[in-house]
Here is the input.
Amino acid sequence: MTHPGIFITFEGMDGSGKTTQMHRLAARLRALGRTVLETLEPGGPPVAQKIRRILLDSANQELGPTTEILLYFASRAQNVDEWINPALARGEIVLSDRFTDSSLAYQGVGRNLGIDTVQALERIACRGLKPDLTILVDVDAEASLARARARNEAAPHCETRMDDQALEFHLKVHEAYHALVAAEPERVRLVDGRRGIDEIEQDVWAIVSAHLEAANV
Here is the structure.
């Protein structure tokens, strides 16, 4: 799928700092006069935000893997149709906190649903839309869980269902992300998330600015 805009996604384990880095990149791009849309998954438009509340609510532990992945793609389809594709058609830079790569890692591998299942749903929900560039902010599974749980304790909320999964699940997700980097090294760029926020930001900017220059936008 071709479009005049640029679609950049941020991936990584919960607690990796990817959300902070996405917001920092958005601020830097806007300071340069770029028009930027920020979105997140699950979520984005109001309908998708309602689906997010079901998916991440810690009270919904009985949610089965099949239901889970269908809800993620329902949210994604709404995000693509209502927010992402229109912004890209206007020539904007779209930044998304997670996209289909999260489903590959968390549901395809973590939930053992398989990559083929994810790709079949992607064809329906996204209709060929893929990120132009993906930044993977990398921290190990143990550090990810420790950060996420510390964050949840500091600011209690109900969106902890995925954080509540066993360490074995998160280890599988971490391994799946690294397999993705190996499979698509040009699109998926790994950034060491164990360092300071400012250092990570500089690495992200080096990757993104080079991409924008190469794309001549």
Summary: The chain has one domain: 6-215. Residues 65 and 112 are 9 Å apart (CA to CA).
